């Protein structure tokens, strides 16, 4: 997930994975994301398959105040698809 901060103030988000298969998804860099002013950042979402069926979850980015500045809450739908299985 690629994020950008067009403002002149830093933004901070707490992340939360929710939904039926949320435990199958994880974030490699922890549960907090900070974006500097006029900067971009990537959030790497990792998936570990337990079943052949598609897995679904939601990634929530909940704004946390930095110097009185709040961003909006962001929501991303996550869906996996298993295309190949190694024995």
From TrEMBL:
<dbReference type="GO" id="GO:0007288">
    <property type="term" value="P:sperm axoneme assembly"/>
</dbReference>
<protein>
    <submittedName>
        <fullName>CFA47 protein</fullName>
    </submittedName>
</protein>
<dbReference type="GO" id="GO:0005929">
    <property type="term" value="C:cilium"/>
</dbReference>
